[in-house]
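We were asked to recover a plausible sequence for a given structure. The inputs and outputs are reproduced exactly as logged, with field labels preserved.

PROBLEM: sequence recovery
POSITIONS: 363
GIVEN STRUCTURE:
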């Protein structure tokens, strides 16, 4: 393998990483794949499971707590795809290594904290001047959660209101649980807030219980949380009123998360167990549903988009691979970007509708 030619996927054997690796392998990317992480046995097992067709692939042991191993990995790559976690502990560590070795970068998460770090000072200029590209928030949430309503809004240019419901019941990996625990505070969004008349209106909304929506197979609890992604979406689309809800399909995860936040705990053990308990009781399912109004918003919505999936990790793998493929094909300019800002929302939505990971309906 050429020392600087690989598409390296760190965390490549995890729930999101393996989904991204399979899609990149099936797409027959123009460069070898390098599956990396702390557990070489798991990387080797994924490598053996890939079909003989497709690009060559290799594995590599990388520990993000060992800067030398991360540098050796990045030095082999033309593109670094980060599917490791928790994102809010890794922050910009992998991205900085990618830039240092002249590689492009795609992050399944990253989100606003990483964007701020990469753009601080002359950071954004260094990516542009070096002709390198970083794409962040290329997952199910954030990521698809902004692209899907953009596609819906493109069908209704006079949209005045958008309601979003995102979540379900799913097992949590320890990395994902870490992101859930740490994904709060003003850099992530505002609880109980709505977007109205061009600004954030705090203490506007209350939780909704026993909500029935097509994206979810049973009644759910919906908690208002106006994410920073939702605010960017509102500004970009010009939708004047946005209500954004996090959905819990079970009871235990919501209870345990509230307790962990109250105690300011970073231990993911109980959170993982609570998610598993919800899955045992209610099965595993995930959904995103968007309601859009044109004109008066006191009647039924003008348009709806309903996404159903068995596995949110597969959805994240889909968008991570999609962002990587667009970057490899030269369709994303150098600089630091959020995936929803640089991917074509309509094209992504159409591709997802054809993907076996999802059932997508526009009404």
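RECOVERED SEQUENCE:
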């Amino acid at each position: 393998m050429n020392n600087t030619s690989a598409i390296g996927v760190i965390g490549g054997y995890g729930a999101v990483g393996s989904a991204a690796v399979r899609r990149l392998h099936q797409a027959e990317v123009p460069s070898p794949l390098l599956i990396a992480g702390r557990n070489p046995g798991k990387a080797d097992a994924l490598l053996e499971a890939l079909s003989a067709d497709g690009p060559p692939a290799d594995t590599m042991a990388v520990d993000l707590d060992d800067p030398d191993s991360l540098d050796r990995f990045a030095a082999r790559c033309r593109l670094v795809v980060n599917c490791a976690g928790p994102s809010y502990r890794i922050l910009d560590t992998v991205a900085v290594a990618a830039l240092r070795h002249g590689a492009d970068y795609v992050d399944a998460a990253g989100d606003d904290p990483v964007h701020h770090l990469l753009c601080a000072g002359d950071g954004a200029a260094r990516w542009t001047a070096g002709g390198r590209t970083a794409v962040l928030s290329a997952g199910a949430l954030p990521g698809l959660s902004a692209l899907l309503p953009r596609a819906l809004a493109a069908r209704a240019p006079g949209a005045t209101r958008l309601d979003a419901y995102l979540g379900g019941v799913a097992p949590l990996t320890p990395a994902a649980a870490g992101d859930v625990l740490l994904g709060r505070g003003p850099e992530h969004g505002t609880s109980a807030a709505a977007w109205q008349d061009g600004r954030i209106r705090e203490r506007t909304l209350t939780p909704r219980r026993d909500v029935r929506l097509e994206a979810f197979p049973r009644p759910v609890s919906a908690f208002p949380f106006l994410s920073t992604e939702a605010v960017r979406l509102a500004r970009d689309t010009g939708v004047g009123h946005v209500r954004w809800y996090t959905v819990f399909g079970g009871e235990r995860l919501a209870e345990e998360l509230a307790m962990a936040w109250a105690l300011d705990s970073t231990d993911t053990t109980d959170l993982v167990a609570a998610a598993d308990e919800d899955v045992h009781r209610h099965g595993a399912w995930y959904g995103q549903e968007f309601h859009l109004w044109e004109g008066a918003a006191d009647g039924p919505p003008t348009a709806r988009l309903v996404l159903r999936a068995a596995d949110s990790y597969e959805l994240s793998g889909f968008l991570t691979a999609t962002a990587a493929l667009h970057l490899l094909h030269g369709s994303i300019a150098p600089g630091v970007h959020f995936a929803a800002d640089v991917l074509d929302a309509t094209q992504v939505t159409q591709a997802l509708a054809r993907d076996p990971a999802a059932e997508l309906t526009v009404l």
